[in-house]
Amino acid sequence: MIWKTVSPSHGDIIRVRVSFYYHYGIYADDDTVIQFGLPDNSGTPSEDISVLVTDINTFSCGKLCETGVCEKSEKKKRFSGAETVLRAKSRIGERGYNILENNCEHFVYSCAFGKEHSFFDKFKK
């Protein structure tokens, strides 16, 4: 995935930088970003973090968002934008957040590709 500061389209994976990490979501429109938790979950018990809907301003916290652009090899594996949004919406309210095994990045890749993935996966034993 290549990250660009371009306007997202329906079903795109978007991310925003939050201090030393990125927070990910699925863009439906400016009023609907589906995400696992908020950009800054610090101080929130993991059992209280859920998949939720916010607008783009709440998601971005006033910062620039980046849009994930699939590389050629990824395009064949990716669901359509409409299917990605449907998959994300079906998970609203879901819990079970874990920074290493079930985070916002796992969520968006699962919605877009049907397979979880995260930068943190390389730290698992």
Briefly summarize what is shown.
With 125 residues, this protein is of the alpha+beta class. Helices cover 22% and strands 26% of the residues.
What fraction of the residues are assigned to beta strands by DSSP?
25-35%
Name of the CATH first level: Alpha Beta
| Count of individual helical segments | 4
What's the average pLDDT? 91
What's the Cα radius of gyration? 13 Å
Number of domains: 1
Strand order of the largest sheet: 1-6-2-3-4-5
The CATH superfamily is known as endopeptidase domain like (from Nostoc punctiforme)
Principal-axes geometry comes out as globular
Briefly note the CATH topology name: endopeptidase fold (from Nostoc punctiforme)
Largest sheet: 6 strands, antiparallel
N to C succession of SSEs: EEEEEHEHHH
Structural class, by secondary structure, is alpha+beta
What's the total number of strands? 6
List the helices and strands and how they pair.
Elements: E1 2-4, E2 13-18, E3 21-29, E4 32-36, E5 51-54, H1 56-60, E6 65-69, H2 72-75, H3 81-89, H4 104-113
Antiparallel strand pairs: 1-6, 2-3, 2-6, 3-4, 4-5
